[in-house]
Write a structure and sequence with these properties.
Length: about 160
């Protein structure tokens, strides 16, 4: 045993185990209430032998388990209370984060009028390219209307078979 108090060691309250430390606190509260009642009943505080007798009764496996269970219950109640008290803040922060994310996504998308502008520019470029092609073809001496008429006109062979 590493301490002068065997209950401290039996509960394993040496490290950072909050449950064990809380259980030891419950033991100490129990011991203090016992000492107060002892003093009231006997007119004097408990002796060292009385303290050892209490520690022996309080260190039974059943009593130690009761301290541990009560410690768990206290910690669970504390955690639930903390969550309940923080619930409004947690919900507000979650909603704010979702709104900020949605606003960022909307902000990163281009506006309707900006997209209309892009469409107009693209149409103008396309039209300019078609005009340049038409002028270039006309300047090179190619007449598409004549070609289309020739393709659609019946040939001499077709004319003679139809008579």
């Amino acid at each position: 045993m590493t301490s002068d108090n065997p209950v401290f060691d039996l509960l394993g309250a040496e490290g950072d185990d909050i449950e064990a430390l809380t259980a030891y606190g419950l033991y100490k509260r129990h011991k203090r209430a016992w000492a107060k009642e002892f003093t009231a009943a006997n007119g004097s505080p408990p002796t060292s032998a009385d303290d050892k007798a209490f520690a022996k009764v309080a260190s039974t496996e059943d009593q130690l388990e009761r301290y541990r269970k009560d410690a768990r219950d206290i910690l669970i109640a504390f955690a639930n209370q903390t969550v309940d008290e923080s619930r409004a803040d947690i919900e507000r922060e979650a909603i704010t984060a979702r709104i900020e994310k949605a606003a960022t996504e909307v902000g990163s998308q281009t506006s309707f009028w900006k997209q209309v502008g892009f469409g107009i520019v693209a149409t103008a470029i396309n039209t300019l390219i078609l005009i340049i092609l038409a002028v270039g073809i006309r300047l090179s001496g190619i007449d598409f209307l004549d070609m289309l008429q020739e393709i659609g006109a019946p040939t001499e062979l077709e004319d003679s078979t139809s008579e």
